[in-house]
């Protein structure tokens, strides 16, 4: 069961996220490896919802620079400075950023022209240090809302938990 890649499209968000969260926990059971967790979460989130791009940018210079990590989708830009674009803004503020229309976000970095809306969630380690951001792009406008924010922040708590 744990090896399955779920397709949760068409299910109510609350139900889909609850099932996805359970599934991620089951797949990662007993594992203490951030890159394996990022890879697994990228895959499961991407295919569960049919997103355009789903993945992580890792903090490689705290307060300064993000570098691409495990992802699913077309080629992502390799590095993003703190404060630049949606990812850099979430990293600099340590807050989730929900962008209903990327064309209305000043400084948005377009890696794929089809991207229309986006959510970026900060990822904290066990000492509340920022270790990465989770970036999800959608081809449709206004895909993400507060329900996504809460569910994804809760999923990202995997990284700050003592394992
Ligand atoms: N859109 C992001 C850049 C990363 S990619 O879309 C994969 C941003 O503005 O931060």
Would you mind describing this structure in some detail?
The protein has 163 residues and is of the alpha+beta class. The chain is 32% helix and 25% strand. It has 4 helices and 6 strands. A 6-stranded antiparallel β-sheet has the order 3-2-1-6-5-4, with helices on both faces. Strand 1 and strand 2 form a beta hairpin. 34% of the residues are buried. Bound molecules: methionine sulfoxide (SME). Methionine sulfoxide (SME) binds next to helix 3 and strand 6. Belongs to the free Met sulfoxide reductase family. InterPro entries: FRMsr_CS, GAF, GAF-like_dom_sf, Phosphatase_reg/MetRdx. This is GAF domain-containing protein.
List keywords for this structure.
4 helices, binds methionine sulfoxide, 6-stranded antiparallel beta sheet, Beta-Lactamase, alpha+beta, 163 residues, 25% strand
**DSSP strand content:** 15-25%
Share of residues in helices: 25-40%
Describe the largest sheet. 6 strands, antiparallel
Number of helices: 4
CATH class: Alpha Beta
Ligand set: methionine sulfoxide
The CATH architecture comes to 2-Layer Sandwich
**Spatial extent as radius of gyration:** 15 Å
- Dominant shape: globular
Return the structural class: alpha+beta
Query: In terms of per-residue confidence, which ranges show pLDDT below 50 for 5 or more consecutive residues?
Result: none
Distance between the termini: 23 Å
Oligomer: single chain
How would you concisely characterize the structure shown here?
With 163 residues, this protein is of the alpha+beta class. It has helices at 13-28, 34-49, 85-93, 146-156, and strands at 53-61, 65-72, 79-81, 97-99, 117-124, 130-138. A 6-stranded antiparallel β-sheet has the order 3-2-1-6-5-4, sandwiched between helices.
